[in-house]
Structure prediction request, 274 residues.
Amino acid sequence: MGAELKTSLARCWKILRSDGQSFCFTDHNEDIMFDNDTYSSVSPLNMSSLEKNIGLDTDNVEISGTFHHESIVETDIENGLFDQAKIVVFEFDWVLKTKNRVLFQGLFSSYSYGDDRFSVEAQSAFGKLGHVFGRGFHLTCDADLGDENCGIDINLPSYKFTPNIIKFLENGIEISSIVGIAEGRFQNGTAELIANERVISKLSIKSDVLTEETRQITFWNNLNSNQTAADNINLYIGCDKSIDCCCQKFGNAINFRGFPNIPNDDWINVQQDN
Prediction:
């Protein structure tokens, strides 16, 4: 006889914000009571967008949803209440009343929203193992452009630009030309997409290419429908964290937090040859 098909499993997910407030949902057709929590069968989250990504080998997943539920509202996301919120997704046996297995657990990282919809990227607990904590001896700077250690004010007119949007591309945007700004100036920088005078998404810039009459900004991921609803954009000059960039682009060598004079591997090989 073949293996018995398990039909009593439901997906449950719990979101815990840093202020202690929790939100529990399920894809079961009835509410589920488990561990003193009620998992609502009416969810603002799109479970299918999460289901196709979850797995122990996944570092990040994208979760989309709508603001049709009283629990998750746009102002809370806009005010940062869901920043670094914890999320746990697990299977629940509604016949045996037991948790079957954890499918995904992680933290909310970046998000975008608009037109009564939102999209959140969650980083898994396994993805955090790849992060570097503390300081190390590296050729490049360990500060982020514009932070306290860097000291650069990225909102100065020489670093921040607001060009006109010409059209959206699959993974980028075409903008009007910016006089006096060389090609590649925005590479490794940040783009803020704005709709109705609000920032709805922040994206890292992969490349910055000039054409005959326009400029093409490419991002690392494809744009979603919320992001392509933007009517304005802020562009911030990029930094590759090298000493040359720090000196030539920003004149900020005094705050450089790397070790540019560390000998590289070629130097070690030369010493061995001698």
Summary: The mean pLDDT is 82.
